[in-house]
Amino acid sequence: MMNWKLRLTxxxxxxxxxxxxxxxSRLVAPFLGSSLIVWTTLIGVILGALSLGYWLxxxxxxxxxxxxxxGLLILASAVTVAAVLxxxxxxxxxxxxxxxxxxxxxxxxxxxxxxxALPSVVxxxxxxxxxxxxxxxxxxxxxxxxxxxxxxxIGSIVGTFAAGFWLIPSLGSFKTLxxxxxVLVLSSLMFLRRWPAAxxxxxxxx
Length: 206
Known about the structure:
Strand content: under 5%
Number of helices: 7
Helix content: over 70%
């Protein structure tokens, strides 16, 4: 029963990464444009943050991985996504300061790190942690690892289409991020006692 919950969460994590990235392009565009430099920076920074998340997630998972800690990790990802809503309110000031000192390329890197590095790192930790938990119940290491990372990639594809065709056009950037945070909070309920997730849920809805 636990395996399907882990798989679903990995799928949601993959979708969340791409939705956040696409929303990121819209949040950054009013201040820095939507040029090749901006897209290059978004993709590069988020991939770098994911790589760090994979590494940290593996190390964390090797240190007594538990279902409850996994739930807290999912809850932390919801908090970091929701935090983008607040950080974006100061993006104009950050971008103006950065443009004066770093130019377009440097300011785009700084603004992307400012908004999206932390949620990307935390979301990147999900797959290796889920893999560690899955391997406690099976010896098919290669098969399980392949299926989890395939699910994460499929989730990214679904998240890309969902964001571009439905979420962002229908809800806008801010409500889309709030929706992602809400889904992550609800996902954490599969692994946690209800009260920590309920607190974050109230904060997100507020």
